[in-house]
Amino acid sequence: MAADIYYSDRTLGTLSGGENVKLRLLALITGQPDLLLLDEPSNDLDIPTLEWLEGFIKNAEFPVIYISHDETLLENTANVIIHMEQVRRKTIPLCAVTRCGYREYVERREAARSHQTQVARKQQEEYEKQQEKFRRIQSRVEHEQNAVSRQDPHGGRLLKKKMAAVKSMERRFEREHENMTRLPETEDEIFVRFSPEISSSKGKTILDLHLDTLENPGGRLAENIDLHISGGQKLCIVGRNGAGKTTLLRLIAEQLLRRTDIRAAYMPQNYAEKMDMAMTPVEFLSRTGDRDELTAIRTYLGSMRYTSEETEHTISELSGGQKAKLYFIAMNLDRCDVLILDEPTRNFSPLSGPVIRRALKEYGGTVISVSHDRKFISEVCDSLFTLGE
Questions:
Q1: Which residues of 8-39 are buried (b: 16+ CB within 10 A; e: fewer)?
Q2: 64 and 174: one domain?
Q3: 3-state secondary structure of 378
Q4: Which of 46, 126, 155, 230 is most buried when burial is the number of CB atoms within 10 A of its CB?
């Protein structure tokens, strides 16, 4: 943010999201806190400011407790990880506290899950073999007991003792089964994959944009914009906060959404721009209302780990991540071949982020995005357009 912003007459409503975040951070820091609590501090920050924030958190002489979905920020700053998750279809909460960096935590977690899975499966195999052997013994004793002659009371008493021993064995096996290692319970991972049928012709011109000036209500943002995008390209618009990235993306969306030779979708930074918050997820995704479509919608919602209760909630009741998932489902259901995405990964958890990035990397269409997510930029995008330089 330019220094003169602090002395200008601009209202907060005309500032970009990143500029507002910077002002809030400045207000907190000037208060000389003993402890700093930050909820998604990296949201909307440009990359230079993100790098400054990382340095600030690492060098702070007081505790900083923060929530973040930014994997790079976590990797570069955190030395204690508190991981909260919900398992068994979000019915049981779990919390783990680990004193290490984020990358080490992910590696430890994966190694522990892998080891526990191996042990649990081995014990289950042994238990099943044990149960098969037990069932043969039980069946033989029951057969002998049914066949014993009433004229042989001594043999009957022996079989009663055998059956008591079998029952005792059964109770012991049940106790052992209760104490067996269980398969690890972790938050269900989302499943995202765009249809392989979606593609953009490599030689097709998707966008050929020339602007002398880019403006918003706060004034002139940029000049002499010349942007050409071809089919299959995955471009990210980057630049400092306030450079006009979201304004430019809205203009691009206005142009491309009118086109009939492509099927474009726009995911805004403010989800309410394109969502009726009073709708349910199923209502938002439905186009025809026929049975096959509703079945497909519920399948997609399940793959994104919506519970049956969440599918009946209004969108306003959902988390930011759940709302973002609806956009991805809609883009897939509509077979869109051009995606216009404003900060597409910002509300996905660090464990869901890699799934989203992989899906977009494998996507056969065109992606035009704005993002400050450094992993998204490096793993998904094949070209950058820097605004303001």
A1: eeeeeeebbbbbebbeebeeeeeeeeeebebe
A2: no
A3: helix
A4: 46
**Which of these, 56, 49, 65, lies nearest to 17 by C-alpha position?**
49
The two counts, helices (H) then strands (E), for the chain are 11, 11
Residues 278 and 161 in one domain: no
| Low-confidence residues of the chain: pLDDT under 50 | 1-2
CA nearest neighbour of 237 among 126, 387, 50, 350: 387
Neighbours of 218 (CB within 10 A): 17
CB-based contacts of 206, cutoff 8 Å, min separation 6: 200, 229, 230, 231, 233, 256, 262, 338, 366, 368
Phi, psi of 88 (to 5 degrees): 50, 60
| Inter-residue contact 81 to 98 (CB < 8 Å) | yes
Q: Which of the listed residues 30, 60, 88 is the one where a domain comes to its end? A: 88
3-state helix, strand, coil in the chain (%, to 5): 50, 20, 35
Cα distances (Å, whole numbers) of residue 345 to 325, 353, 359? 10, 7, 12
Task: Report the distance separating Cα 66 and Cα 102, nearest Å.
Answer: 13
Task: Judge if 351 and 276 occupy the same domain.
Answer: yes
Residue owning tokens 């522990």? 112
- Structural contact between residues 207 and 225, judged by C-beta atoms closer than 8 angstroms: no
- The verdict on residue 99 lying in a domain is no
pLDDT of residue 313: 92
pLDDT at position 162, please? 77
